[in-house]
Protein 1
Amino acid sequence: MTQDQGVNRDQVEHGLMAADSSERSSDVEKNVKPFKSSSQSKGSEGPFGNEENAEVKYKTMTWWQAGMIMIAETISLGILSLPSVLAEIGMVGGVILILGLGAVATYTGYVIGQFKLAYPGVHNMADAGEVMLGGIGREIFGAAQILFLILIMGSHILTFSIMMNTITEHATCSIVFGIVGLAVSLICTLPRTLRRVSYMAIASFISILAAVLITMVGVGIEKAGHDKVQATAVAPFSKAFLATTNIVFAYAGHVGFFSFISEMKEPETYMKSLYLLQGCDVSMYLLVAVVIYRYAGVDVASPALGSTSGILPKLAYGIAIPTIVIAGVINGHVAAKFVYVRLFRGTDKMSRDTWGAFFRWALIVLVLWTAAWIIAEAIPVFNDLLGLVSALFASWFTYGLSGVFWLYMNHGRYGESKKKMALTAVNVCIFFIGLILCVLGLYASGTAIGNDSKGRNGSFSCADNSKSKT
């Protein structure tokens, strides 16, 4: 780590938000040496180069379109596990964790924006790893990112099969429903630019909002007199920490932020997108978790859409289909774009609109979604899969690594002022939050997966997976 790899003051002062740009610029290093990858320059034009004469233009999103993509990516499956989190650790502990982890996620999202403006050529976590650690960092961070995204894609295929089992009353083998989910997701991931996907993101947000509203109203009517609600709860450590990792998963959208900013017309408006996301997700998470748990009680289902009875679960899942599919598609798009940029960056293949380019993109998409389907069948319990994903990767991409990014940008300046010393302490703590979530989360999710694999929820099973609880 060298002094000449700091952040250019002008980039940050004119980035993020004009109102407090002078404060932000003091938080990072000056006089940056331009970042170049091992293959070619990743300069101020970003990963897609000069698009003036490009057949396919990527840098087309406005801040609100980026914000809607971030909302659709983040507010999806995570929200469906939160009522069961409160059932496991109690109302008070759950609310504190939802608010606290949400506040930290807002700050870490801001740090990612700082890092992107400092190094405009960074398109993904692999590029960020290369900035800090060279080629080794690129490979480690890149492998972690692609595995994380595939696991999230797998969780969406799993939820699709749960949804189909609920709507059809287990009309056929769950594996068949998983294959259908794979096919639908693959087709929707074929557009190559995020701007096209952003319009689907609006439908995704509307669908999850309508689905949880139906569930909240349903449980309120069916179980108005429910008294099995606990302000605090005592649970085995592995179950309690698995519940905590499910909250972490609810804020796990940060892995795609570099990619989203790269396709914005004006990357400096990213903070508007972040605030739109965090305002929506924290408020929705709190409302949905508290209301559904208040009425469904300790026996609340996970995903939460199954907490009602009769026709309501089918109605809720039917309305949630756009979210179940599109949120997975956004993660699939980020994963495919990571591979595509890695293979063709710096060549005219990036911007060509030909059948050959389409075939290359479609082949990448097919391979990634097939891998996701295999994972969905191997870990067929919703909360267990979310816990594993959160422990391995969301702990770092949403929390721990942002602390590392800040420390890297401010190397050599940790003690220059009281504010800087305080921020240094904050970001060191964020790094250790990521480490603790990873280590303890792996233990908790591993224990749960081992226990559930011995029961009816075995891997590659045709059994009905729509009745699982936490």
Note: The first helix runs from residue 9 to 13.
Protein 2
Amino acid sequence: MFRAGARRSLLRPFGPSATLKQASTQHSTFTGCQLASTFRAVTGKRPNALALAPYKSLSTSLTRYASTKDVPESKKTEEQFAKEKLEAHPEEVSTSSTTIPVVEGREEREVDMMAGVKSDLKTIRETFALTEVPREAYYIGMAGVLPYLATSASTVYLAWDINHADLYGQGFLLSGHNAELLLHVLEPLQVGYGAVIISFLGAIHWGLEWAGYGGYQRYPRYMIGVVAPAVAWPTILLPVEYALIVQFLAFNFLYFADARATMRGWCPPWYQTYRFVLTFVVGASIVLTLIGRGQITDKINRMPGPADRVRALKEAQWENLEREERERQERLAKEEEEGSDEE
């Protein structure tokens, strides 16, 4: 008795939780033994839930009681909710109001992605708008690329017409022969105009040097104006395809040279963007021309170019020299025969 009373007096300051914990420990040990003996007795039979009900842990019951003793009775709560009337809100119902997205934040990422695309489109639009370029330079520069666009579009159409004539025996607007002749007229026009434009782009740097824009750079800036025509004009002696490829490379080289000059302060700040747009149009035109000519390579005859004419001129000169030499030898031989007859 003393021991039991002393134990109760010692456990009282710690509250009911300590007592419950100890009681649950003792009860678990006792019920564990009973459950083990019962389970052995019914080995081979299916356990019955009603038979195991009296052996539930005391700690489980005490914990459930402690957590639900302050909650109102469920019956009263159900009666209170039963008296309330549900109100319909159809404006709040949508296809996604009762669903949870598989990946949280997916809609927000889509908005961000569209914002990036819109920003890129805005940048492209501002680049081709050339708002900082003087209007005079803008209009004249755009008018300067029209011949390139016209010759490229004409080449593509004539190539299509030649293919149409080859397949059906007659062209759409022109005969195959006339389309080929017109195509040979366009070839030197596009190549010659490209050489003029490349030379002009190099000459701009001479004007900037004379004006002292960005300081006087002397030979480095003069060399740009010298190299450009030195590369451009020999292309008129090449076959059309090779001439267009060389001019395409020359236009791109001059664009990078102009971009570096702009970064160094040798050109106005807007000149790099201005040159990019014009180079883009010219480069696209050259590519279209090469694609159109590539479709009819085996269907047209190659017209003699400047190099062919120079070669033909040399051959004609050699033929004239050989003919003159033969005539001279024949005259000398005739004079010798007449002298021998007189003797």
Note: Confidence is low (pLDDT under 50) at residues 1-55.
Protein 3
Amino acid sequence: MGSLTPSPKPWIETPLIESSALSKAAGCRIFLKLENLQPSGSFKSRGIGALLLHSLLTRPSPQQVHFYCSSGGNAGLACVTAAKTLDRFATIVVPFSTKPLMIAKLKNAGAYEVVQAGDNWKEADTYLREELLNKDEGGVYVPPFDDPEIWEGHSTLVKEVSAQLKDKGEDGADAMVCSVGGGGLLCGVLLGLERESWGKSCAVLALETKGADSLNKALTSGQLVTLPGITSIATSLGATCVAQKALELAQNRGVTSSVLSDAEAAMGCWRLADDERIIVEAACGLNVAVCYDGRLKKLLPELTPQSKVVIVVCGGSNVTLQTLMTYRKEYGWIEGTTTDDQEVPSTLSAPTNGADGFSNQWGWMDGDEWHDQDE
């Protein structure tokens, strides 16, 4: 690796677009903050990127820094992508249960090494700390969500939203919607809102899926709650306990917390693909799901047709076309009471009686054409 030179930020300013289809479905003005366009494919480029950049600026020997992360998901991808941008190495340790697709994505993104160890995240993380990090003087540990520098990185999202709305002639948002795993994004959003003139009046809707709802349980009990495990398909929300800071900020702010089903999260994925041609994983799909069937106004009844709601399209790389096909086939029944607005494209494309609505006419090509296991 070369010497440390002024480096570009490991994240980018993402577009904020007003969605006609989702606005019609929700009955208010829906703006999508497209974090799926970040270099790593998710919002984590902001927080993880900020942490890595801070580490290089504060270390006595930044040229010797080597980053270590025990996430085979979006945090790991963000770590590798940011490290490559900053001209540094990143080693990722994942459990043996990690899917080959994610390992291939980590390697393709430029990981120095992808090590498999342990049967779960805790065992992989222990191996990273004891066998790798402790033996590297230049090693820097990269947590997935629980760090002040990560929260500050995520807060840049709100600053961008404020400037982008101003460019559109709007004075801030009336509500922001984001999903919650460990709470890093929520911390960033809440900290960012504290710094905006319109932030105090902006409602915040924090969403989780059943089986990955550690924030909702913590808010209900008034203290941190550790889930026995993650049973939701939204595995990127798979933190069994949220950050203490996330709970404190959510309590102080009066955040609206809601838990959706896996079926609703899956519905949000394929309907977003039909309505806006955007592919995201289930952890992001639930943010969009609230736009349909009156869910958003039930959760935030003060919204009017002119209310401006910013939905963080957090992105995520754990999704393929086959994933969407499966979601549509297995969870199509949820659209039995779908919106009847015929101007919303996904209303017309909604499956009937669970039919998947996809053609497999060309599926055979994958068996004959693609063989590179590093792709």
Note: The radius of gyration is 20 Å.
Protein 4
Amino acid sequence: MDEFTAEAFVNRDDPIPVVTVSATDDHAADGDDSPSRRHKIKKALSSTKLRDKLHDVTEKKNEPSSSLQDRLFAKLLQQIVPTEDMTDVLDTPDKRSSMYINRPGFSLPLMTNNFRRFNARIGVVFVFQNRVERLLTWRVPTHTLSFLAVYTFACLDPYTLAVLPVAILLLFVMVPSFLARHPPPPANLPTDSYSIHGPPLAPPRSIKPANEMSKDFFRNMRDLQNCMEDFSRAHDKVISIFAPPTNFSNEPLSSTIFLMLFVIACSMFLASSLLPWRAISLFAGWAATSLGHPSVQRAFLSTHKIHLRPREKQARGLLDSWIAHDIVLDSAPEMREVEIFELQRRGSNNEWDPWIFSPSPYDPLSSGRISGDRPKGTRFFEDVQPPTGWEWSDKKWTLDLLSREWVEDRMVTGVEVEMEGERWVFDILYEGAGDEALEHSKMKGKERKRDWEEGNGGSVKGRWRRRRWVRMVKRKPLSKKPH
């Protein structure tokens, strides 16, 4: 009786074990208390140790000099910030690649130095962003129209997109670099032709990081600050718009959106080859670029305020009424039937003793019975627990009166089914087979039409009997996890 468990048929969601690969230079076993001197020297001069030492020396050489204040603040942060279990896993060096031998953890001096280097070099991104904004907001209309002309040409002939990266490299990288080395004369009239002959007169143009005390450095900090604010606002706005209708907090609305998207996906799967994608891309590009014009924006906002906003409530009401009439959701929780088998064992005085409540019937040909294992389960009915994620729907267990059905469904052999009374299913003690029915079921299985018998009192009963209890369970609502 030492194999009783408190929960008989709980479906456990155990975490998947993490497989770790040990390094080739692991320590010796704990049993080796005094390794030889030769082993110590060989271990100290191994290739992995030398590589780690060289990497540490290189890191110390390249590490920026930090002040005492930075080091003290870093130590303070190490005491305040809690360490997580995954940190060791993430910081574990990858032995398969020389690029990721070691990744440094969080360090305030290293973070400060990396931010300074990043801020000194991010200016080119902000310059590109500023030029894109000027192009899409029609600051210089001729530039925007030129962009639309190129976009139109690319939409009408998509094969020209392969030429676009090469043209950008030539016009915006190579030509300006050549003109920087061959500047025009100081006094150059508009009518004079630009001569490209002769040796280079100026040094090549190079992109250098901004100095830490220069105006460009602080402009980069300002733009980086504004970009972080813009990203945070855009992120919160997108979440506030798309999260409520798509996270099934309002399940009828989310189900309607899911149905619409499913219909659109099926339609696009069938009709996507028939759509004029060139014309659609051309119209979409022109429409999106036109919305950036100030006059178009004013006209669009006024139209939305006058015509669309008064009808938003009416459209939402029509959608809600359609959802209420056509979208039917299951309000009742999911129900399942679970089972437990009450096992009893015949004692030396031919009395049946309560033994265990087990999730399996422990029939004569079960794997546990053949291997000689004891039945597993719980001793008391009150200790039987519902599966994980479920809770009891009924208050009490119900005896299954159809013992014949579950015996036939499980193809249980070598048993006698009690058709009346308490519906016990007994083991049959065949003559010359001891306590089990293995030999009899193997030899007589082809001659009999069924491998069980109805209880008539004529057969000798074995050591075990069981009966089936059932109970309804329903899905349990999941508790909200704290962030």
Note: The chain has a mean pLDDT of 77.
